């Protein structure tokens, strides 16, 4: 149930300018922090864990297909491609939900956003957290689990916000998204109305991993510059080529953001495969081999962090650029090998392997 939010024994009833006398106490529903730096579906895992679901972070990344995807390269397109968003994942897991999308061209966006804020506050009063777009991070799905009437703030978690103490941000932030995208609103999660077919979700995720990796899709968008959207190996090849063709390339926000997500999701891919492999006995060896490949990919991405991550130098350096190209190639090759192992696992499954029921 919701409760007054306290920290170190002190009630959080302070505004930016001091004590608000007579103000209502902040209310929060305790939720887990994000365990994966990922913008789309870890929010669902956090909300459902507060309801008593025991899905691991890696399992949610896996069955949502996000763990195996790479898109863009950012900032020209979404880092995770077209994997499941919160709504599709909730539906697959058997949950009812209500989506309030603020990007639908409301005549009075301010009034629509005010209604959404009230609906989220009611969810929290009822002991439920909500999935909300751009609540604390930038253009990601976050988790709102509390509110503070004294400061008109929401309280909650995000992929890089609220990892220790809860994050706070103005409630009106839901109606904005800068110049990046429209305000996508929130998803209010209802009750579970049916049991999910987890074995089917696992197989579907593996099939989609192979399709995505081999995709030849190329969508151009014309804006202030020519954007491109690539998936899977084509996306990786573009990223490698960017640094191989120009070793003086200075890493940008897109490089750092994409790297941060992929380092986390690829580690989840390895853990997901290890989790499900024992249920697919004839494919178990190939799934475990794939897990090792994705683990190696994540290792290479970790080594890239000081070269193109958030704290990397922002000036030309041919030696650093050449190292980045080499490590990106290593990550790309490990990814390709992992996809090949999944393809072999699917062949074994299609020859008659019958998975056991998930626990």
Write structural notes for this entry.
With about 350 residues, the chain is an alpha+beta fold. The protein has two domains: about 5-190, Cathepsin B, Chain A; about 200-350. Helices cover about 40% and strands about 15% of the residues. The protein contains nine helices and 15 strands. The strands form four sheets. Strands 1, 6, 8, 9, 10, 11, 12 and 13 form an eight-stranded antiparallel sheet that branches. Helix 8 runs antiparallel to helix 9. The chain is globular and about 55 Å long. The model is unreliable at about 1-20 (pLDDT under 50).
Key structural traits:
359 residues, eight-stranded antiparallel β-sheet, three-stranded antiparallel β-sheet, 9 helices
Question: Could you give a quick summary of the protein structure above?
Answer:
By secondary structure, this protein is α+β, with helices and mostly antiparallel strands.
**Secondary structure category:** alpha+beta
What overall geometry do the principal axes of the alpha carbons give? Answer: globular
Low-confidence stretches: 1-22
In the CATH scheme, the class of the largest domain would be: Alpha Beta
Distance between the termini: 28 Å
CATH architectural type of the largest domain? Alpha-Beta Complex
The percent range for helix content is 40-55%
The CATH topology name of the largest domain reads: Cathepsin B, Chain A
Count of structural domains: 2
- Count all strands and give the number: 15
């Amino acid at each position: 149930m919701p409760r007054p939010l306290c920290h170190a024994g002190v009630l959080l009833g302070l505004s930016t300018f001091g004590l608000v006398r007579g103000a209502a106490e902040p209310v929060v529903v305790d939720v887990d922090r994000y365990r994966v730096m990922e913008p789309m579906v870890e929010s669902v895992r956090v909300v459902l864990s507060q309801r008593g679901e025991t899905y691991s972070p890696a399992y949610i990344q896996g069955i949502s297909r996000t763990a195996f995807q790479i898109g863009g390269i950012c900032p020209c397109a979404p880092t995770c491609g077209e994997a499941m968003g919160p709504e599709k994942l909730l539906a697959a897991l058997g949950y009812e939900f209500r989506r309030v999308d603020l990007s639908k061209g409301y005549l009075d966006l301010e009034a629509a956003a005010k209604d959404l804020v009230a609906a989220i506050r009611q969810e929290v009063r009822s002991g439920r957290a909500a999935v909300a777009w751009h609540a604390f991070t930038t253009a990601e799905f976050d988790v709102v689990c509390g509110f503070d009437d004294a400061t008109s703030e929401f309280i909650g978690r995000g992929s890089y916000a609220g990892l220790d103490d809860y994050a706070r941000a103005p409630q009106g932030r839901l109606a904005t998204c800068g110049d990046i995208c429209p305000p996508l609103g929130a998803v209010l999660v209802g009750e579970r109305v049916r049991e999910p077919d987890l074995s089917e979700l696992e197989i579907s995720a593996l099939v989609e991993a192979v399709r995505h990796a081999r995709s030849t899709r190329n969508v151009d968008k014309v804006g202030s510059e020519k954007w491109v959207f690539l998936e899977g190996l084509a996306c990786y090849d573009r990223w490698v080529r960017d640094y191989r063709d120009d070793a003086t390339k200075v890493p940008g926000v897109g490089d750092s953001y994409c790297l941060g997500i992929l380092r986390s999701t690829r580690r989840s891919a390895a853990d997901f495969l290890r989790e499900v492999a024992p249920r697919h006995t004839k494919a178990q060896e190939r799934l475990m081999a794939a897990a090792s490949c994705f683990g190696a990919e994540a290792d290479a991405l970790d080594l890239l962090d000081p070269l193109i991550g958030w704290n990397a130098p922002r000036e030309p350096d041919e030696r650093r650029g050449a190292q980045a190209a080499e490590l990106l190639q290593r990550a790309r090759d490990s990814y390709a090998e992992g996809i090949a192992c999944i393809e072999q696992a699917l062949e074994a499954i299609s020859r008659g392997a019958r998975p056991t029921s998930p626990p």
